[in-house]
Design brief:
alpha/beta; Rossmann fold; 8-stranded mixed beta sheet; 6 helices; binds flavin mononucleotide
Length: about 190
């Protein structure tokens, strides 16, 4: 069965990003594609040190738990990273993670190539579009396929787990999840 990995970059327990990813995962599963949500919460993701060892070993030498996530992505057909906006851009940990995941893919067997997905950004008030653009760079340089929805993949939520107050944003994410699953099934036909 095809699988999509959804990666939350929120450090918070009661997280809007996790709430949004649950909706996305449900939409994916409703099309009979498997979905697994993974969180960076509690992890301290280091930045790429440009050692190029991934070209030899096919994984990352940094020992902070990202390798387990990379192994799951290697076995998936879809990838959806989601980040809270911090000062107008993506939370730093997700960019560190994406840069290392991309570096390993490019150094190894390009496992990201033709993987289906796209980024999601969550913010209290502003900065989602720049955050989406920032995260999209990872998709384009790794031959991945970004899927559209009926709006950009952005949701409003403050510290109070209140994304339900943005039904339009949640519907965009639901539609996005459905489209990701449908494209994966189409590619597999
Ligand atoms: C350091 C920091 C910077 C933030 N910067 C922004 C910002 O630039 N724009 C914004 O709308 N919200 C900003 N926020 C609020 C979060 O993006 C917002 O609360 C989001 O819903 C948190 O997602 P989470 O619950 O999944 O962690 C910031 C929060 C923190 C902790």
């Amino acid at each position: 069965m095809s699988k999509v990995i959804l990666l939350s970059a929120s450090p918070r327990k009661n997280s809007n990003t996790m709430d949004v990813l649950s909706i996305c995962a449900k939409a994916i599963e409703s099309e009979n594609v498997e979905a697994e949500i993974i969180s960076l919460r509690g992890k301290e993701i280091k930045s790429c040190i440009a050692c190029n060892k991934c070209q030899e070993i096919g994984n990352c030498v940094l020992n902070d738990g990202l390798d387990e996530i990379i192994n799951k992505i290697k076995n998936a057909q879809g990838f959806i990273p989601a980040a809270p906006v911090y000062f107008g851009t993506a939370r730093a940990d997700i960019m560190a993670a994406l840069q290392r995941i991309g570096k390993v893919s490019r150094g190894a067997n390009k496992f990201l190539s033709w993987m289906v997905g796209g980024p999601i950004a969550v913010a209290r008030r502003g900065g989602q579009t720049i955050t989406l653009q920032e995260m999209s760079m990872f998709f384009n340089i790794n031959e991945m396929i970004i899927v559209g929805s009926n709006y950009w993949n952005m949701v409003f939520g403050s510290h109070n787990q209140d994304t339900n107050d943005d039904p339009e944003g949640l519907e965009t994410i639901r539609q996005f999840g459905e489209n990701v699953a449908k494209l994966i099934l189409k590619i597999n036909e």
